[in-house]
Amino acid sequence: MSLCVVGSVALDTVKTPFGEVNEALGGSATFFSTAASFFTEVQLVAVVGDDFPPEHLAFLKSRGVHLDGLQQVPGRTFRWRGEYGYPLNEAKTLDTQLNVFAAFRPALPAAYRDAEFVFLANIDPALQSDVLRQMNRPKFVACDTMNFWIAGKRTALVRTLAQVDLVVINDGEARQLAEEANLVRAAARILSWGPKILVVKRGEYGALMFNGKTIFAAPAYPLENVFDPTGAGDSFAGGMMGYLSTQQGAVTDAMLRRAVIYGSVMASYNVEAFSLDRMRSLTEEAITARYRDFQALMAFDPLA
User: Fold this and answer.
1) Which CATH number covers residue 42?
2) CB under 8 Å to 74, separation ≥6 — which residues?
3) How many Cβ atoms sit within 10 Å of the Cβ of residue 93?
4) I want to staple 35 with a disulfide (CB 3.0 to 4.6 A). Which of 99, 139, 145, 235 is the partner?
5) What band does 151 get if pLDDT is binned at 50, 70 and 90?
6) Looking at the predicted structure, is the pLDDT value of residue 29 above 90?
7) Which of 292, 223, 237, 294 is nearest to 266 (CA)?
8) What is the dihedral of CA 2, 12, 270, 123, to 10 degrees?
9) Is residue 185 part of a domain?
C-alpha cells in the first residue's frame, strides 16, 4: 500500500564524543523515508534550496523514495547544528537555520493524495492539518510533534491529533502535552482527544505503546557502539509505518506490536553511524536477524 510522509529534509552538522560530520544529509522526512524504504516505496513531501547536493537526491531515489513532492526553490536548505555529550539522549542545539523551510507550504501531487498511509512528521500542526485536507480518505494517519509546537501552538496541535490514528512522541513531550507527570495518565488524556494509539519513545529505555486498554513495552536494543542518535525517532517511525503499510486488512494490535519492534530495529541501526551512513549498507537480512534478536531478548516462560 502507498505511504506518504510530509516533513523536513535538511543538512545536519553533528558532533558527538565519537566524531563529527559537517552538513550531512538529515531531516525528519529523510530519516523516516530511508527507514520505511526497506519495506515499501515512499512518497516524500518536503522542500530544499537550490544548494541541496544532487548526490543526496540520488541516494533517496536509489532507496525507492518518490521525489515528485520535493520542492526545490531558490535559497538555502534548512540546516541544523547540534552536539551530544555522553548522555546521548539529549541533543544540545547550537544553531538552527530554517531558510527555505520557513516558508514551506506542503503541496501534494495528485498521485500522492490517494496514499493509504500518511505520516505527518514534525512540522507546524496547522500545516499537518492542511496536508490532511489535501488527502482522499487515507486508511491510517500517524503524526509526530515536539515541545516547540506543544508550547506555542497547542490548540492547533490538539485539533490535528483529533484527526489521526497514531501519535508518536517522546516521554517528556507526552507529559508536557498532557500536563501530567505520570506517563500512564498522560497517555490516557492524549488518547481521549481522538487518537487511537500512542507510542512513547523513551530513547535508551525503549518504547511504550498505548492502544486502548492494552500497553506494550519494547526495550531498546543493547548496542555496543552508538555513534549518533540524530534521526533515531524518525527512523523508528519509518520502520513502524513502513511495516504497517505492507499489511492487508484492518490494523490490529498484533500488527502494531510487530511494527513497534520493526521501528526499534530501524532506530537501532540508525544510531550505529552518523547521518544515514549505516542505512547505506543495511540489508533486509540484517533487519530480519535483529527482529529475531528482539524476540529472543523479550522471551520468557509463562507461569505454570
Assistant:
1) 3.40.1190.20
2) 49, 50, 100
3) 9
4) 235
5) very high
6) yes
7) 237
8) -40
9) yes
Structural domain total, the chain: 1
Q: Which three cell numbers stand for residue 23?
A: 552538513
Q: Is 304 part of a structural domain of the chain?
A: no
Residue 51: alpha-carbon gap to chain centroid: 25
When pLDDT is cut at 50, 70 and 90, the band that residue 69 belongs to is very high
What domain range includes position 199?
3-298
Q: What is the pLDDT of residues 236-269, one digit of tens each?
A: 999 999 999 999 999 999 999 999 999 999 999 9
1, 95 in Cβ contact below 8 A?
no
User: Percent of the chain, pLDDT > 70?
Assistant: 100
| Predicted pLDDT at 85 | 87
Whole-number pLDDT of residue 89: 73
Nearest-5° Cα angle at 233, 182 to 121: 100
304 confidence band (pLDDT: 50, 70, 90)? confident
How buried is 139 (Cβ within 10 angstroms: 0-12 exposed, 13-18 middle, 19+ buried)? middle
Beta bridge partners of 209: 199, 216
CA pair distance 47, 106, nearest whole angstrom: 8
What is the model's pLDDT at position 293?
97
91: in domain:
yes
